[in-house]
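Inverse folding, one chain.
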C-alpha cells in the first residue's frame, strides 16, 4: 500500500478471498478487503473514514440494474468521499449501456 490506507471492495466473496490471499500481509494493517455490494454502500461500516479517491474498474457501473440504482450508488459514493475526493470509473464497451442509461451516455466523452 506504499504508505497509504487502501480498501478493496467487491460483491463477490471469491474475489475478496483471492485479493486477501494474494496481497494482504499481517504486517500491513493499511490494506483491507471486504465483500460489499454497491447497493449496500449506504449501510457499509467504514469506520467514519473519508476516501480521497474511489476507483471502480471494469463494468461495475454498467451492470447495475437501473438508473435509480445508479443514482443511489453515486450518492453513496459521494458520501464516502472526502471534501476534495475524486471518483474515477471505467465503462468498457458494454453493449446496451447507452440505451439503459441515456442520461450519462455521451459518445464524445473519452
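Residues assigned per position:
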Amino acid at each position: 500500500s506504499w504508505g497509504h490506507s487502501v480498501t478493496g471492495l467487491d460483491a463477490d466473496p471469491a474475489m475478496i478471498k483471492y485479493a486477501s490471499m494474494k496481497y494482504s500481509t499481517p504486517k500491513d494493517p493499511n490494506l483491507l478487503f471486504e465483500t460489499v455490494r454497491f447497493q449496500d454502500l449506504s449501510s457499509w461500516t467504514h469506520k467514519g473514514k473519508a476516501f480521497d479517491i474511489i476507483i471502480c474498474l471494469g463494468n461495475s457501473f454498467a451492470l447495475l440494474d437501473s438508473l435509480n440504482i445508479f443514482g443511489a450508488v453515486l450518492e453513496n459514493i459521494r458520501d464516502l468521499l472526502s471534501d476534495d475526493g475524486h471518483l474515477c470509473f471505467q465503462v468498457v464497451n458494454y453493449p446496451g449501456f447507452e440505451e439503459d442509461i441515456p442520461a450519462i451516455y455521451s459518445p464524445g466523452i473519452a
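The chain is about 25% helix and 25% strand. The longest strand covers residues 81-89.
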